[in-house]
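Could you please consider the sequence and fold appended to this message?
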Amino acid sequence: MNIDLRLPVKTLKGEDHPTETLGSMLANELSFKAKGMDPIKAFNIAVALTGDGAMEIDLSDLKLIEALVRGSERMTTLVQGQLLIELDKQGREK
């Protein structure tokens, strides 16, 4: 399935962050420490997200990424929530 995270991070006021996207935030997390994921796979997904903001993954990868986001101690709740909502939405559409 193709997951497209070229969406801007929203502030609490609903405004677009001027530079950060959901894809860039997830790429940063994947490049830091992708607990439970193969490092090569995490690297390849992070590169794809950094390049065009989309990634090709299967359902098992989606579940690993969701668990990584849920367990992240580096991401803010603001970003975690937006990522999890979007991953769930796009995962159900596929």
